[in-house]
Amino acid sequence: MYWDDIASVVPRDPEVYEASISEELKELQERGLYHPIVLGEQYRRPLGDDLLHLEVLMRELRELAASSPSPQTSLMGAFLFRSKVGHCLEAEIVRLGLGRRLGNAWASRGMDVAVSKEVQLLLIGTLAQEVALTTEARAYTPYTDQRSAYETSLRPIAPGRGVAAWRVELGHLFPMPAPGTPTSEVLAFRDKYAPERERLMGATQTMLSDLCRDWEHPADVLQRMRVELNQAREDYQSATRASRTAWVNRSISVTVGVATAAVGALVVPDLGWVAGIAGSIGFNVATREVRPLLHARKDHPFSYLHQVDRELG
User: Fold this and answer.
1) Hey, which residues does 115 pair with through a beta bridge?
2) Please, are residues 166 and 286 in contact by the beta-carbon 8 Å criterion?
3) Fewer Cβ within 10 Å of end Cβ, the chain: N or C?
4) For 92-127, how does the pLDDT look when each residue is reduced to its tens digit (9 = 90+)?
5) Alpha helices in the chain (DSSP H)
6) What is the pTM of this model?
């Protein structure tokens, strides 16, 4: 509904890709609203100390393997598609006892390794975060509806080793079409009310960027953006009321890294006042700690979590 387009990491093998992608995504791709991402060669080389982009992921996998008994076969209810994460990473997961090779019947459907849901979400969250924030050709923003994948990709490696960040709840700013709304209806609304949608999204992204850059003065940021955000929100709400679509408010939280390497949580003496300003606009703001990224784009320090099963009051 809100992004200009979406993308996802897909298997490199064309046959596996065709079997794994949904018809809905194929339709969006034809409209220019979706494109697939294939992991680059740097994610497929033999694992070693030089692969800094996989350092965090490998540490998480090894800690998971060391902290819990080997998953039972019955608990490995998720799968890794062949050619999606690379043979070397698959082999390491099997070596650590976190996955098992599947037989030819499964392999013929493009599924090579069975893993637990925990391992699958760990891979999804960490790889999506790294790809989104290290790709130079396009600007990606990590976005998921899986809290486990979201938190795993952001949590500090160890206590005291996190860096400061904001957590912003935007669910009341961005109403969503009710479950069961046809994609065609969503796209029709996008087209009809494109100016209102783009204005609201643009004002929100500007506010998040300013919170990142001017993190020491959050009240000034929100005061500066208050009028523009309120007007954008009111215009968009008028558009939703004019449509025949049913709308709901779901939790949409975004983590915003700040423009500093300061360790620990943000210290904001007037956080209550800041939260009050945010509430008057229609969202909530708090602080948190996140894992520092080894290589990150400076212009998109955001990660979104859309909880489709959590409706806001």
Assistant:
1) 78, 99
2) yes
3) C
4) 888 888 888 877 655 555 567 888 888 888 887 777
5) 14-20, 23-30, 55-67, 87-95, 104-107, 117-134, 147-154, 183-192, 194-213, 218-242, 271-281
6) 0.78
